[in-house]
Each structure stands twice: as structure tokens, then as C-alpha cells.
Design a protein that fits this description.
The complex is a heterodimer of chains A (481) and B (494). With 481 residues, chain A is mainly alpha-helical. Chain A has a domain of 214 residues. Helices cover 76% and strands 1% of the residues of chain A. Chain A has 21 helices and two strands. Chain A has a two-stranded antiparallel sheet with strand order 1-2. In chain A, a hairpin with a 4-residue loop joins β1 and β2. In chain A, α2 runs antiparallel to α5 and α6 packs antiparallel against α7. Chain B has one domain. Chain B is built from 22 helices and two strands. In chain B, strands 1-2 form a two-stranded antiparallel sheet. In chain B, β1 and β2 form a beta hairpin. Chain B starts with 5 loop residues before the first helix and ends in a 6-residue tail after the last helix. Classes of the chains: A mainly alpha (481), B mainly alpha (494). Chain A: InterPro entries: NADH-Q_OxRdtase_suN/2 (IPR010096), NADH_UbQ_OxRdtase (IPR003918), ND/Mrp_TM (IPR001750). Chain A: Keywords: Cell membrane, Membrane, NAD, Oxidoreductase, Quinone, Translocase, Transmembrane, Transmembrane helix, Transport, Ubiquinone. Chain A: This is NADH-quinone oxidoreductase subunit N. Chain A: It is an enzyme of class 7 (translocase). Chain A: NDH-1 is composed of 14 different subunits. Subunits NuoA, H, J, K, L, M, N constitute the membrane sector of the complex.
């Protein structure tokens, strides 16, 4: 009886988010017309509640529902960062959505369902539950991208994302089915046990790993599975782009942890090699193609591919410290892209998207504070100390060198220099160019701009004192191997 | 060893003060200037006890501080100085005061941001000279690029954008491989980022050579050595006067400091093996770059090339592995810190009045600006290396030390003294002497009190170091002896 109760207690944050998502849906239906902020306020309350529940669970470990659900330090930490990311997106979103007439409850319901999907992925101990979480996330994302019906590009992006996303899910599912056929179980830990008896060169196993990794690479946005990313990032309403570039990356990283580490750690050498290739391709394609972009959303999309290349270096290392550094990189990336896209959100207004790089011209003269924040964001993405982006790169380089891949680190740092160029270009446009007369950036100081200031300054503060955040990410990975 | 926070104070006072200046805002320019001056004076005052409390009898690190900073990666906030670092900290805090006074009037746009950038950069430069943890060193080393990038890009000349992006990417590219080398060293020093632990780590020859080359790239770009010096003339020409002063006087020194603190003691065998390369590059800088300097039309560019040539003496001295030569190199760094700063200030004084740096636009300045001409004369003589000025001490010691090891190198280096005299004196003659060549020159006003103070302070330093170098040498002596011992011992595991 006691154990029955434990199952439900373990899954309490998930149950809470699910319940509240339904509550928001219904409440918005009845009172949404009169209380326009209701959905967003309820969403924020949901996230705060979930945070409390997760903190309450910290330190507990175990499985529930016959292994479908895993609670460990990674579950806790990854869920906390996901709440934070969604909370920041909600805080940024209001004015952008109001300006475009899409400030409706459905956005927030979809965000909550997407979050639930991430949570299920993070805590999944079974191929089925992981896949279920992935699909919940993916379907919510498709709907979010295409949500702004009046925008042709958003609709097009939604369709593209759906077609390619479905293909990737199919690849992943195919890999999972091969794993099932090979081991006769869907439980990730049992798969790990059963794989011990499979010869390393087994062709079916190789295919299974390739398909699974391809699916994960698609969700992460690693080249050559990155084709959807620039179009979707550019086409989606910026609020949705901000979300896409944040919490779902934690979900995608959870796939690495749950499927490859929990399940396939014995096959480390097989998937390590694939990640070397993915990492190299992402580093080169992301950083080089970003140089040619004129649209800042598209530039940041390619920069995402580059960042995935860097964080894959930590996965390549395959050690506990390596995965911890990759996780740290993911968290830092989430913070940076929240701030970066948040800035675009804040500088946009009705009928004007601040999405050309030239729109930032002369920002330092007109809005010195926001230019300064953008400066921090750009230098952090470039990985220049003393911003937190540097420590993220440092950690993955350290991990990959410890694994003996010095040459990979050398290529990585050289591409970091190439990457620095296009981030510098944004700084150059803001600080060294004169403002265009017609560039119509107006910033209203409100809650969102305060959050953005905190978000951006955090990149600098965490750069000066990165110890605690890093320790937290290392704590998440402790004992995972 | 007593615990003190003096080094932290010296690093953080200007950084926090810089943020304070930023908060004052550009609209209250006067307040920002005074506050910046106050902060720089306080910082200078904070660095004085480092000198008065310094123990010259030991080569050990003094004023050490060590706190866990990023435990997950074993990174410590570890500071400490020896005789080699001390002078550069003082040089930095001294010159920042002068730069702030020197930029008092001629920077009118975004004053608070300008002052703040200098103060924050000062803190980071001091940090480089104190850091004993490799990652901390790297953080300060790279972090400094951001304010300099903005200083050149925002307040610079017409081609500032090209110059500053070139500066940033060049130095960034040079530095990143150093990061890989430092991480590699971490795994061979028993999981420690301490520079002192690196110095004790045994390493095979191949590893040493690769590490040496990675560090070499970072330091050579910064110094800069031929052939990776091409960013410097561009950066100098476009930078505002204050930026040029800090760039020439302090930033270039960090590269040379890096050789002393990292390359020589960490990879001594590779340093010996590749010394021929370093000597060759240094001699090319001394001879060839000096010839390049002669033909320059732009005063700043000429001084920039002369910096490259003078830094050639520094690196030449270091790679003789001889006490006298290394001490000479250090004195040359200090001396060049004063003289190049003064030369750039002199160009700034002229530029503020005439808005051109073209040598042809001048002539006969002595007739209207006698005080300025006299002071510039002193600095020109220092640049030439005339006895009595600081320039003589450094170059003489380097050539003397070099002669004991390699007479041919010493003879070649000594020819550099002649070319140095040619370009400096010719510049001086064309700008200062002769009849008044252009009507604009006739209207020039001599130095005002502020300029006189800045140039006077530098003149006093140049003479002090030139006439009485003993106290300067006393401080560096033990540390250099220790370094010479370190670099003479092989670290290749038997």
C-alpha cells in the first residue's frame, strides 16, 4: 500500500502540471474573455507549484509504475530548469502576443502540455514513456509554431516542422522497435542488462543505435539533421521560437541520458563515434553558415546548430564529467537563447519584427542599456570570458580533452573563433553604426524588460561566479553512469 | 606568509569603480570624469603597498590568495605576485591615472562609457599579472578584449570598425589554442590548474613543443612578434589616444609576461629547442620592422612599428636564458611602457590640435610649442636608447646578455639601435625642427597644465628608470634567478 502511494508521490509534479493544464483550458473557456490575463497567471502559478513539488522531491531516488517512471537527481534538476525556461517565456510573451491579437489561453495550454512532454521524457524509464513524452512535446510544438494563422511564414514553418518531425519520430521509433526485437523488453534498464549479451558488432544493434541517435540528433538540431531548424526558428512567432530554443533542448538532452546512457551505456563506443561526426558537422555548418545570415532569428538558429556541436563534444567524452558538462552547456544555452530571443521579442512591436540584423543599428545610442544587455548575450554566445558562455565551452573542452580527443578540441576552438565573427557583427551594428532613421525600435519598460535585464545580467554574474550552477549540473549527473 | 586581500583590491576596485562610473551616465560627463579619476587614484594607492611590502629576497609568490572558485572543475581563485609581476601591476595602475587625465578633454562622446571601459580593463590587466590559476589567467586575458574592442570601435578613427574586428579576431584566434594547451596541461599535472603545478609537471618533448607552439601563438600575437604583428598598426592608428597608450604600454607586455610566466618555466626543453626560432623572429622584428617604421607617413603607425621593434629586444633577451638578458628584457618592457605611452600622448597632443597624424602636415613645431618639443625630445631620445634614459638600460642589458651567449645575435641586435635612431630622429626632425612649414602649425598653442602633468610624469619615470635602475632591478632579481634555474632544468621524464 505504501509503495502504491509512493508511485503517485514520485509523479506528483507531472500530475500537477497535467491537472493544471486542463484547469487552464477550462478556465480560459469560461472566463477568458473577461479576465484576459487569467491563462498566463494560472500558468505561472502552475510553474511555481511544480517547482515547489520538485524541490520537495529533491534527493529521493527510485522508480515507479513498473519502471515506466524514474526519479533521480537528473529528473529533479532538468525539470527545475524546464520550469524556469517556460516561466521566462511566459513572462516575455504578453506584449508580443497582444500586439498580434493572439494573446489567447491556448498558447499557454500548449506550453504546459509541451512542458509535460518534456517532464515525461526527463523521467521516462521505458521506451514507451520516453516516446510518449516526446510525441506530446512534438505535437504541442507543431501546434504552437502554426498557431499564428494570419502569418503565412508561420503556417509554412508549422507544416515543415510537422513533416520533418514526424519523419524523425519515425526513425526513433524504428530504432526503438529494433531494440525491442533484440532484447525483448521496453524497460531501459533491462535493455542495458540484455545488451551485455549482444555482440558489439551485431548488425541489428548497429542499426538500432544509428536510428535512435538520428532521432535524437533531429530533436537536438545537430547537423546534418538540422534542416528544419532555420526555417522553423525564423517562421514561428518569436514567442514560440523563444520556447523552441529553450526547454525542449533540455528534453532532447534527456533523450541522450535516458536512451543512450541509461540504456546503451554499454554501447558507448558505437554512439560515441556517431557523435564525433555529428559534432564536427554541426560545428562547421552552424558556425560557417551563420555568417551569411541577415535575419537575426535565422542567424541564431544556425548558431544553435553550432552550440549543439559544442555540447555534443561533452557527449562524445561519454564520462560522467563529460555528460555533466554537456548538460551544463545545455542549461547555459537555454539561458542564452532565452535572453537572445527575448531581446528580439522586446524590440518588436505591432507590425514590426526586429529580426533583421540591421534593425539593431545604433541601438547603443538610442537605448544604451538594451545594447549593453545584447552585448553580454552576444559575447556569452561567442564564449568570451567573463560571461557564462565561456565556462560552458571550457567544461566541454575539458571533458573532450580528458577523453583523448585533443584534435576535436582544437577544431572546436577554431570554429569558436569563426563563430565569434558573426556575434561581433551584431555588437558592431549596435555600437559602431549610426541608427537608421526608419529603424523603428521602441522599448517600453515593463515587467518583461525587467526580466530580460535579469536574464541577461545573469549571464554575466554566472560568468563571474559559475561555481554553484556548475555544481548543480554536476550533481544532476552524479551516479548516473 | 600573511594573508592579505591587496591583490583582490587592486583588481576589483577599478572594475567596481568602472561600473559605478557607468551608472553615473554619459549625461553627467563632468561627474563621470572626476569619479573615474578618483577610482584610478584609489587603485594606484592600493597598489603602492604591494611595492612597499614586497620582500626582495624571495622568489616565492607573495600576497597570495587562494579560494575555491569553480570546484566542479577544480578551478581556484588563486592570486600571487613575484618580482616579475609587481612592476607591471604598478605600471598599469600608474598609466591608467595618466590615461584618464590625458583623455579629459579630447573625449566628448559617451564619456562615462569610455572611462568605465578603461577602468574595467585596468582591473582585468592587473588580474592577468596576478593570476596563478591557468583558467583565471585565461579569463582575464580574454575578458580584456571586450573593453578594448569597444574602445577602438566606438571612439576610434575612420577605419575603426575594420581595425577593431581585426584586433579582436586576431587575438582571439591566437588565444584559443592556449586554452587547449592549458586544458591538456591540467590532465598531466595531477588535475590542477595551478600555474605553479604546471611548472613542476614533467612532459615529453613532443608534448612540450606542441604546448610551446600553442602558447607561442597566443603570446606572439599579443606582443606582437613578426609576422603576426599586422593587427597592431591598424589598431593603433584607429584607436583613440588613451587606447593606443594602454595597448602599447600594457597590453603588449602581457604577451611577453606570458612567455616568462608560462612558456619558459612550463616547457623549458621546448623553449631551448625552439630558441633559434624565437631569436630569429626577434631579430627580424628588430631589423626589418624598424626599416618598415622608417618609411611610414603616419606618426602613429611609425610608433606602432617601433613598438614591434622594441619588443623584439624583449623576446630576444628572454630566449637567451641568461639572467642579465632576461632582466634587461623586463626593464625594456617597463621602459617601453613609459616611452611608448609618452610617444602616443605626444602624437595625441598634436592630433588634438591639428586633426592629422600625417608627418608631412607638420614641421617647425618647436617654434610654437617649445615645452612640448623639449619633452618630446626626451622621449625620442629614450626611444633611441640614449644613456640616461630608461631605453638605454634595457637595450644595453639585453645586448650585453646576448653577447655572452651569441655574439652574432648581439651584433645584429645592435644594428637595430641604429635603425631605431634613424626613424625616431628623422620623425623628430620632420615634425619638430625646421621652419614653420604650414600656416596651421603657426597657430599651435603649447601644452596646457593637464598635458604637461601627464608628459612630465612620464618624463620623470623615464629618467628615474634610466638614471637609477637599481631599485627596479632589485625587485626582479630573485625571481629572475629562480626563473633561470627553472628553465635550465630539463622536464623530460627519464
Amino acid at each position: 500500500m505504501n509503495s502504491f502511494l509512493t508511485h503517485w508521490i514520485f509523479a506528483l509534479p507531472e500530475i500537477w502540471v497535467l491537472t493544471m493544464a486542463c484547469v487552464v483550458l477550462l478556465a480560459d473557456l469560461y472566463w477568458g474573455e473577461r479576465l484576459r490575463d487569467l491563462a498566463s497567471v494560472l500558468t505561472m502559478l502552475t510553474l511555481v507549484g511544480a517547482t515547489v513539488l520538485t524541490i520537495f522531491e529533491m534527493g529521493q531516488r527510485g522508480t515507479a509504475f513498473a519502471g515506466l517512471f524514474v526519479l533521480d537527481s537528473f529528473t529533479n534538476v532538468a525539470e527545475l530548469f524546464s520550469y524556469l525556461a517556460v516561466l521566462v517565456v511566459v513572462l516575455y510573451s504578453k506584449r508580443y502576443l497582444v500586439d498580434r491579437g493572439i494573446y489567447r489561453g491556448e498558447v499557454f495550454v500548449l506550453l504546459l502540455f509541451a512542458l509535460l512532454g518534456i517532464m515525461v521524457m526527463v523521467s521516462g524509464g521505458n521506451l514507451l514513456s520516453v516516446y510518449l513524452g516526446l510525441e506530446l512535446l512534438a505535437l504541442s510544438q507543431y501546434a504552437l509554431v502554426a498557431f499564428y494563422r494570419d502569418s503565412v511564414v508561420a503556417t509554412e514553418a508549422g507544416l515543415k516542422y510537422f513533416v520533418l518531425g514526424a519523419l524523425a519520430s519515425g526513425l526513433l521509433l524504428y530504432g526503438m522497435s529494433l531494440l525491442y526485437g533484440l532484447t525483448g523488453t521496453l524497460d531501459v534498464r533491462n535493455i542495458a542488462g540484455a545488451l551485455v549479451n549482444v555482440a558489439a558488432g551485431n548488425l541489428v544493434l548497429v542499426f538500432a543505435i544509428v536510428f535512435v541517435v538520428a532521432g535524437i540528433a533531429f530533436k537536438l538540431g545537430a547537423a546534418p539533421f538540422h534542416m528544419w531548424l532555420p526555417d522553423v526558428y525564423q517562421g514561428a512567432p518569436t514567442v514560440v521560437t523563444t520556447f523552441l530554443a529553450s526547454a525542449p533542448k533540455i528534453g532532447a538532452f534527456a533523450l541522450v541520458i535516458r536512451l543512450l546512457v541509461d540504456g546503451g551505456y554499454g554501447m558507448l563506443e558505437s554512439w560515441q563515434q556517431i557523435f564525433v561526426a555529428l559534432s564536427l558537422a554541426s560545428l562547421v555548418i552552424g558556425n560557417v553558415i551563420a555568417i551569411a545570415q541577415q535575419n537575426i532569428k535565422r542567424m541564431l538558429a544556425y548558431s544553435t546548430v553550432g552550440h549543439v556541436g559544442f555540447l555534443s563534444l561533452g557527449i562524445v567524452a561519454g564520462t560522467e564529467a563529460g555528460l555533466a558538462s554537456a548538460f551544463f552547456y545545455t542549461v547555459v544555452y537555454v539561458l542564452m537563447s532565452l535572453a537572445g530571443f527575448g531581446m528580439i521579442l522586446l524590440l518588436s512591436r505591432a507590425g514590426f519584427e526586429a529580426e533583421r540584423i540591421d534593425d539593431f543599428k545604433g541601438l547603443a545610442q538610442r537605448k544604451p542599456w538594451y545594447a549593453f544587455l545584447m552585448l553580454i548575450i552576444m559575447f556569452s554566445m561567442a564564449g568570451v570570458p567573463p560571461t557564462v558562455g565561456f565556462y560552458a565551452k571550457l567544461a566541454v573542452f575539458q571533458a573532450v580533452i580528458s577523453a583523448g580527443y585533443v584534435w576535436l578540441a582544437v577544431i572546436g576552438v577554431l570554429l569558436a573563433v569563426i563563430g565569434a565573427f558573426y556575434y561581433l557583427r551584431v555588437v558592431k551594428v549596435m555600437y559602431f553604426d549610426k541608427a537608421d532613421a526608419e529603424a523603428g525600435i521602441i522599448v517600453r519598460d515593463d515587467l518583461a524588460s525587467t526580466v530580460l535585464s535579469i536574464n541577461s545580467l545573469a549571464l554575466l554574474m554566472l560568468g563571474i561566479l559559475p561555481g554553484p550552477l556548475m555544481a548543480f549540473c554536476f550533481y544532476a549527473m552524479r551516479g548516473m553512469m | 606568509m600573511t594573508y592579505s586581500t591587496l591583490l583582490s583590491d587592486a583588481i576589483w576596485t577599478p572594475i567596481l569603480g568602472g561600473l559605478l562610473v557607468l551608472a553615473v551616465g554619459d549625461r553627467r560627463a563632468g561627474a563621470a570624469r572626476w569619479l573615474a579619476l578618483l577610482v584610478s587614484l584609489v587603485t594606484f594607492a592600493v597598489t603602492i603597498p604591494l611595492f612597499t611590502g614586497f620582500d626582495t629576497h624571495t622568489a616565492a609568490m607573495q600576497f597570495s590568495e587562494r579560494v575555491a572558485w569553480i570546484p566542479a572543475l577544480n578551478i581556484f581563485y588563486h592570486l600571487g605576485i613575484d618580482g616579475i609581476s609587481l612592476w607591471f601591476i604598478l605600471l598599469t595602475s600608474f598609466l591608467t591615472v595618466l590615461v584618464i587625465i590625458g583623455s579629459w578633454r579630447n573625449v566628448q562622446e559617451r564619456v562615462a562609457q569610455f572611462m568605465a571601459a578603461f577602468l574595467i580593463m585596468e582591473g582585468m590587466m592587473i588580474g592577468v599579472f596576478c593570476a596563478l590559476d591557468a583558467i583565471l589567467f585565461y579569463v582575464f586575458w580574454e575578458g580584456m578584449l571586450i573593453p578594448m574592442f569597444l574602445i577602438i570601435g566606438v571612439w576610434g578613427g575612420p577605419r575603426r570598425v575594420y581595425a577593431t574586428i581585426k584586433f579582436f579576431l586576431y587575438t582571439f584566434l591566437g588565444s584559443v589554442l592556449m586554452l587547449v594547451a592549458l586544458l591538456y596541461l591540467y590532465f598531466h599535472s595531477g588535475d590542477s590548474f595551478s600555474l605553479l603545478a604546471f611548472q613542476k609537471t614533467p612532459l615529453g618533448m613532443t608534448a612540450q613543443i606542441l604546448i610551446f607552439l600553442a602558447l607561442f601563438l597566443a603570446f606572439a600575437v599579443k606582443i606582437p612578434m613578426w609576422p603576426v604583428h599586422t593587427w597592431l598598426p591598424d589598431a593603433h592608428v584607429e584607436a583613440p589616444t588613451g587606447g593606443s597608450v594602454i595597448l602599447a604600454a600594457v597590453m603588449l607586455k602581457m604577451g611577453a609576461y606570458g612567455f616568462l610566466r608560462l612558456s619558459l618555466p612550463i616547457v623549458p626543453d621546448a623553449s631551448h629547442r625552439l630558441a633559434w626560432l624565437m631569436v630569429a623572429l626577434s631579430l627580424i622584428a628588430i631589423i626589418y620592422v624598424a626599416l618598415v617604421a622608417i618609411v611610414q607617413e603616419d606618426m602613429k603607425k611609425l610608433i606602432a612599428y617601433s613598438s614591434v621593434a622594441h619588443m623584439g629586444f624583449v623576446t630576444l633577451g628572454f630566449f637567451m636564458f641568461d639572467g642579465v638578458a632576461i632582466e634587461g628584457g623586463i626593464i625594456q618592457m617597463l621602459s617601453h611602457g613609459f616611452i611608448s605611452a609618452a610617444m602616443f600622448f605626444c602624437v595625441g597632443v598634436l592630433y588634438d590640435r591639428m586633426h592629422t597624424r600625417n608627418i608631412k602636415a607638420y614641421g617647425g613645431v618647436v617654434n610654437v610649442m617649445p615645452i612640448f618639443a623639449a619633452l618630446m625630445m626626451l622621449f625620442a631620445m629614450g626611444n633611441v636608447g640614449l644613456p640616461g634614459t630608461s631605453g638605454f638600460v634595457g637595450e644595453f642589458m639585453v645586448v650585453l646578455g646576448t653577447y655572452q651567449v651569441s655574439p652574432w645575435a648581439a651584433i645584429l641586435a645592435a644594428t637595430g639601435l641604429i635603425t631605431g635612431a634613424s626613424y625616431t630622429l628623422w620623425l623628430f626632425k620632420r615634425v619638430i625642427f625646421g621652419g614653420i612649414a604650414h600656416p596651421e602649425v603657426a597657430g599651435l598653442k603649447d601644452l596646457d597644465g593637464r598635458e604637461m602633468f601627464v608628459l612630465g610624469a612620464l618624463a620623470a619615470s623615464t629618467l628615474l628608470l634610466g638614471l637609477w635602475p637599481a631599485p627596479f632591478l632589485d625587485i626582479v632579481h630573485s625571481s629572475v634567478q629562480h626563473l633561470v634555474t627553472q628553465v635550465s632544468l630539463s622536464k623530460i621524464p627519464v
